[in-house]
Every structure is written in C-alpha cells, then in structure tokens.
Amino acid sequence: MDITDQEILEKFAVESTQQFAFNLLVKKYQEKLYWHVRRMVINHEDTNDLIQEIFIKVWKNLHKFRGDSKLYTYLYRIATNETLTFLNKKKRKYFLPLSNVEKKLEEELVASTSFDPDKLELKLQKAILSLPTKQRLIFNMRYYDDLSYEEISQMVNTSVGALKASYHHAAKKVEKFIIDD
Amino acid sequence: MAPATLSTCMGRKIEIHKELQEITPQLAKFEKTNPFEVPADYFQNLPGNITERLQIKHDEVSILDKLIRLALKPQYSLSLISIIAIFIITVIVFDRTDEINGLEEQLQTVSTEEIQNFINDNIEDFDAEMIYENMMVEADVTEIDDELYESIREYLIDELDENTIMEELL
After folding, report:
1. Does A71 touch chain B if contact means CB atoms closer than 8 Å?
2. So what's the pLDDT on residue A82?
3. Contact assignment for A113 to B3 by CB distance below 8 Å
C-alpha cells in the first residue's frame, strides 16, 4: 500500500474522508498489529476481538494524535496496552496465578497451531511462553517485529538500557528452555 | 514498518540477527516461522467487520447517554445507580455475562420515556421522597447542568475502561 501516514492523517482530519482514511489505516496496519497481538494472546478468537477493540479505540482517539511520535508507534502503543490489559483481565477472571495463565496459553498454543509437536518450532513457542509477560512482549517486538530499541522504548515506556537487558535475559532463557526441554 | 525504507529494514534485520548471535548462537540458527493460522479471507473481511462494530458501539454510547441522563436526575439517581451496581456485581461475582447479553439488544428498542415509566412504576413513593431529600442535603444539587453531564459522560467514556463498562453493564 503506497499511501503515507501523513496522507491518512490529513484525510482523517476532514469529516467527509474520515471513514475512508480510517479504512486505509486499518488495511495498512491490520496484519502487523494482528500478529503483534496474536503472539501474546495466542488464540485467534481472542486476537480477533482484541484487534477490533484496538481499532475502535484508534478511531475514537486518532483526532487527539498530534504527531509527537510516528503513527505506527502510536498504534503499537495502543495495541500493546490493550493486550496487556486483556492478559491481566484473563488472569483475574479465572483467579489464576500468572504461571497458570501461561500454562493455559500453552494449551491454546498446541490447539491453535498446525505444526508438528515434535518440531523445534513448538519448542521455541513454548519457550517464549515461559517468559514473564513483559519480557515476552519485548522479546517478540525485537525478535519477530524487528523493532529498534528506541521504538520499543516509546511503545512500552521503558528505557533503552532496560530493554536491552530484558531482551538479553529473555533470549538466554529461551535458549536454556529449548536445550533443557 | 511504514516510514522505514527497504534498505533500512534489511539493515535492521541484520543488526538484530547479529545481536542475537552474540547473545545466543543456538537461537540465532532458528528459522523464524509463523506457526499460527488465520481463517481464509480474514484480513480481507476485517476492515468491514470493524466498521460494523463501530456502528454498534455508536448505538451503545447512545444507550449509555440515556442511562447517565436518567441517573443524574435526582428522582432516579439512586435507583438507577443501584440497578447498575447490581448488574456489575452480578457480572463480576457470578460471571453471568451470557445470560444478560440479550439486554443490549432489548435496550436498543427502549426509549428514555419507557425507562422513566418503568422506574416510576417500580419505585415506592416513600423511597423516592427519601432519596430526593438525601440527595438535596448531601450534594446540594438543585438541577443537573450540561457541563456536569458532559464531564461525567466524558469521564465514563474516556477514563473508565469503556469496553469493560459496556461489556459488563450491557
């Protein structure tokens, strides 16, 4: 898609082209945000609900966006906050300690993916799921989304130094999990 | 990523891969694959699904408007707030969401006047009088102005998690 973020924002600012601009925005970013959320919540149904809520929130708040950050940074920030809120709610809803939520996510992972359970892909996903939520989020953003530390820093309000340390620990833990498993 | 050029993206991928090789050469050897599946045509349909949800949300906010306006009227406030509180407690404590999901659709068809009539028919005169007197003494409120209404409405919609409110209330 060739349209720039600036063009989307300009069209969104005009009432007659607002809906059109919003559709362009959804089409441009839906896949990136979907996979960002899916890797955290694992199953498609939850991701689908969440991604729709995220875009509805964007629709309601985009008029307040002043361009202090890049548009995709702003979108990722909303998606990340909504995802973390969802995971916390899930924990509260089932009155589960975090480790059990991750166990539940692991069961959903096995149920909602098509790969061979003996393959390394599944081990990698299980290893990533064993990380604490915030560390898992940072690992995914760096490892899968190829985001720079500066971008992640703006999205999760954490210093670059802390992010580097977190990613380093996460990668080491993932490696150890795979070797020990 | 939108603003980055192809060469910037490639450069960053290489940089991230080198970093991973330094931290854990084992993990760096893994091929990054996507094990998850999505239903056919999911991304073609998603923009349309979101537009539909936006229309439903718009209607939900209208219902919320009705309830807030009623709750701000002294003669209805305590009753309506009690009803809302009971709904929220019911949903949170007993997780009866499925049983009350139909309420949203029913409320769409109910006018503000009908809600007022229902409360009038189901409240004792003594209760209404007592509630009204308590309201006047405790809050020194004579009438609800638009500014107060707007500020409460904005608070409920923006500051409280509106998804939760609507999911749990309706």
Report:
1. yes
2. 96
3. no
Write the residue in A38, A52, A179 that is nearest to B36 by C-beta. A38
Beta bridge partners of A113: B36
Residue B40 in contact with residue A12, Cβ under 8 Å? no
A66 φ, ψ to 5°?
Answer: -105, 5
Q: Looking at the predicted structure, is the pLDDT value of residue B141 above 60?
A: no
**pLDDT on residue B159:** 52
Query: What is the pTM for the complete model shown?
Result: 0.66
Q: What is the CATH number of domain A113-181?
A: 1.10.10.10
Taking the domain A1-96, which CATH number applies?
1.10.1740.10
For the segment A56-72, what is each residue's pLDDT rounded down to a tens digit?
999 999 999 988 889 99
Q: Which two tokens stand for residue A166?
A: 């977190």
Instruction: Pick the closest to residue A62 from A84, A83, A46, A77 (CA basis).
Output: A77
- Reduced to 3 states (helix: H, G, I; strand: E, B; else coil), residue A132 is coil
Strand ranges inside A77-175, DSSP E: none
Using the beta-carbon criterion (under 8 Å), do A55 and B3 form an inter-chain contact? no
In degrees, to the nearest 5, what angle opens at C-alpha A78 toward C-alphas B13 and B164? 145
Could you tell me if A27 lies within 8 Å of chain B, comparing CB atoms? yes
Amino acid A138: pLDDT: 97
Taking the domains of chain A in order of start, what are their residue ranges? Answer: 1-96, 113-181
* Cβ pairs A/B, distance under 8 A: 92
SS3 A113: strand
C-alpha–C-alpha distance, residues A122 and A119, integer Å: 6
